[in-house]
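Section 5: illustrative case.
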């Protein structure tokens, strides 16, 4: 990840639901520092909540011993967020769509995240944990009106 001069922001936190709000605050503060729109900031807060919650759930059964790393890489007009866990991992090809999740009675976390970001990467191996990396671009500046 190539970051701007501000550098990388890292947060290492326990795998506990009480820290999800801290992760949201960190990401929203970084996005505000990049002058992201409120809509983009709201999208990022939802994304981070979903990713961190999934990491917490999948760190079971040793959840209290596990850590989650949140890494923010700000660039002008873009923010890349990476969440790493050392949970049990899973087969990423099993992730479906909203419709498949609804039919199977499962959650919408990853399909929702994909719908709110511009770039999405998922790496996971059984027994080795998971890395989710997303990039959100803020709205593009409007083009000046051309000649009529």
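Designed sequence:
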């Amino acid at each position: 990840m190539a970051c701007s001069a501000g550098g990388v922001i890292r947060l290492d936190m326990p795998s506990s639901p009480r820290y999800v709000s801290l992760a949201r605050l960190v990401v929203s503060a970084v996005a505000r520092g990049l002058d992201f729109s409120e809509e983009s900031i709201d999208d990022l807060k939802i994304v981070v909540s979903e990713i961190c919650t999934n990491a917490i759930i999948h760190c079971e059964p040793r959840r209290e011993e596990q850590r989650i790393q949140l890494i923010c890489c700000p660039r002008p007009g873009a923010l890349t967020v990476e969440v790493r866990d050392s949970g049990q991992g899973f087969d990423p090809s099993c992730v479906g769509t909203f419709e498949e999740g609804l039919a199977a009675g499962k959650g919408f976390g990853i399909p929702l995240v994909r719908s709110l970001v511009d770039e999405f990467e998922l790496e996971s191996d059984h027994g080795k944990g998971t890395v989710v990396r997303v990039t959100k671009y803020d709205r593009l500046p409007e083009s000046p009106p051309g000649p009529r």
